[in-house]
Amino acid sequence: MLKKSPLWPGMVIPLLLMVSCVYQPMEWNPEIKIAPPGLEKSLAEAQEEVEKVRESRSKDQPTTMVLTRDGVILSVLARNKSLAVQKFSPRIAKTRIPEALGVFDPILLATTSLGKNSLPLNEGHDASISRESQVSAQLSQFTPSGAEFFLSGGLSRSRTTPADWEYTGSWSVGMNQALLRGSGEQVNLVSLKQSENLSLRSRFELRGFVMDLVQRVETAYWDLVLAQEKVKIREFSVLLAEEQLQLNKNFISVGKLSRDALVSAEAELASRKADRVDAYAEVKARTIDLIRLLNPEFDAQWSIVFETADPPDVASIDLNPDVSARLAALYRPELAQARLDFTNSELELIRTKNGLLPRLDAFASYGRLSAGNSSSEASRYLDDSDFENYEIGLSFETSFLKRAEKAQHQRAEFQKQMAEAAIRNLEQLLEADVRLAAIEVDRQWQRIPATQHAVKSREEELRIERSRFIEGTSTNLDVVQVHRNLIQAQFEEATARVRYIQALTALYHAEGTLLMRRGIGIDVEK
C-alpha cells in the first residue's frame, strides 16, 4: 500500500496554476481590425510615391537601350532570376555524392559510464551495493567489399561491498565480412553511383533549362523586331491614307470628285491611325516580355525603350531532317536524363537482387584481457600472449517468405522496364519534334520569296490603280482596297522573314545544338 507523501499538498497549488495557464480566452480588441483606406486616398498616395521615385532617378540612367540578339542572350544568362534559382539544383544534387561516400567513413565510438546497484538483503535491513565505472572506445570502418573492420579498447572498475575494487583492461581487433547479402563492390557502391548519376542528371536538366531560356529570349527578341517592323508598315499605311485624302481634296476642289469621297478617305485615315496605335501597343507589350527576361538593374526598367540592331535578314541553310534527328539523339538533354534514369533503375535492380540472398557473414576477432586490484594491473598483461582471446565463426540470417524483398525486386524490374519504354517513347517524340521543326523551316523559307513577289506585285498594282484614279476610271474605294492589299502583303513578307528565323531557332532547339551554335557552354561531364 502506498504511503501518503507530505509533498502532495504542496504540489496541488502549482498544478492548479499550470492548468489555469493552459487556456486563456483572447479578449476582442476593436483596434486589431483596421479598415482599408479609401480609394481616393490610396490613389493619391500611389501618385505621390511614383513622383518621388521619378524625381530620385539618376539622370545618367538610360531610357533607351540598343539590343542585339547575342547581347540579349548574354544579358539574360547573367541576370535572369529564374536561371539564378535553377543554378542551385546541380549544387544541391552534388551534395548527394559525399553523403553516399559517408557510408565508408571511419567511425569513432567512445563511451564512459558510472553506475550503482543496490540489492536489499535480510528483508531490507541490509543492502549489497555494487559500483561500476568504465571507459571504452571503438574505431570502425565499412569497406565497399562488404567487410567491416574495428579496433576497440576499454578500462573498467567495479566493486561490490565489502570487497575491494577490481580493475579490468582489454583491447581487440576484428572484422565482419558479408559473404552473400551485402557482399562485393557491385552492390555496396550502388548508392554512390546513383548519386553521381543524379548529380549529372541535374546538370543536364540545367542545360535543358538554359536552352529553353535562350529559345524564349530569341523568340521574344524577334517578336519585338517584328512588332517594330509592323509599326513602320502602319506608319506607311497612314502616309498612304493621308496622301489619298489630300488627293481627294484636290480633286474635290477642281470638281473632279464629289464630297462623298472625302468622307470615306477620312474614315480610312482614322482606321489606319487606330491600327497604328495597336502596333505601338504591341511594341510595348513585347518590350515588357524582354524586360522580364533581361531584368535591367535600374529603377526605370519598366519605362525603358529597346532599339533592335539586328535586322531580320535571312539566309538559306542545308536542311536535312535525318541529320537533325541524329543530332537530337546525341545532344537533347531530356534524352540524356532519361538514359541516366534507366541506368539508375539498373543499379536499383542490382541492389534488390542482392537483397534476395540470405545474410551469411564471417566474423573474427582477437584481443587481450588483463585484470587486477589496481589500474596498473588492468594494463599489465595486455601485451602478454598467454592471456589472448580470439573468436571466429559464421552467422546466418534469412526470411522464409521474403515477401518484402521480392516485392522490392519486382518493383525494381518494373521501374527498369518503364525507364526503357520511356526512352523509346522519348526518342520517337524528339524525332517527331525535329522533323516538324524542319518542315516549319522549309515552309517559312518558301514563303519568303512568295511574299516578296506579292509585295512587288501589290506595289505595281497600287501604281496602276492611282493612275486610273487620276484619270477618273477608278474610285476611291478601289484605291483604298489596293492600299489594304499592299499593307497586308508587307505584313506577310515581314512575318515570313521573322518566322523563318524563329523556326531555325526552334530547329536548333529540337536538335539540342542551340547552345553550341550560340557559343554557350554548360559544364556537363560525359
Low-confidence stretches: 1-26, 28-33
> How many helices in DSSP terms?
14
CATH third-level topology of the largest domain: Outer membrane efflux proteins (OEP)
Rounded to the nearest angstrom, the radius of gyration is: 42 Å
Instruction: Just give the CATH class of the largest domain.
Output: Mainly Alpha
Structural class by sheet pairing and helices: alpha+beta
First-last Cα distance: 78 Å
Proportion of residues in extended strands = 15-25%
* SSE succession: HHEHHHHEEEEHHHEHHEEHHH
The main sheet orders its strands as 2-3-4-5-7-8
Q: Could you please describe the fold and organization of this structure?
A:
It contains 14 helices and 8 strands. It is an alpha+beta fold and 526 residues long. It has 2 domains: 106-142 and 147-181 and 359-397, no CATH class; 191-344 and 412-517, Outer membrane efflux proteins (OEP), CATH 1.20.1600.10. The strands form 2 sheets. Strands 2-3-4-5-7-8 form a 6-stranded antiparallel beta sheet, with no helix packed on it. Strands 1-6 form a two-stranded parallel ribbon. Helix 3 (69-79) packs across helix 8 and helix 10 packs across helix 12 (403-471). The longest helix has 69 residues, at 403-471. The protein is elongated, with a radius of gyration of 42 Å. It starts with 6 loop residues before the first helix and ends in a 9-residue tail after the last helix. Residues 1-26 and 28-33 have low confidence and may be disordered.
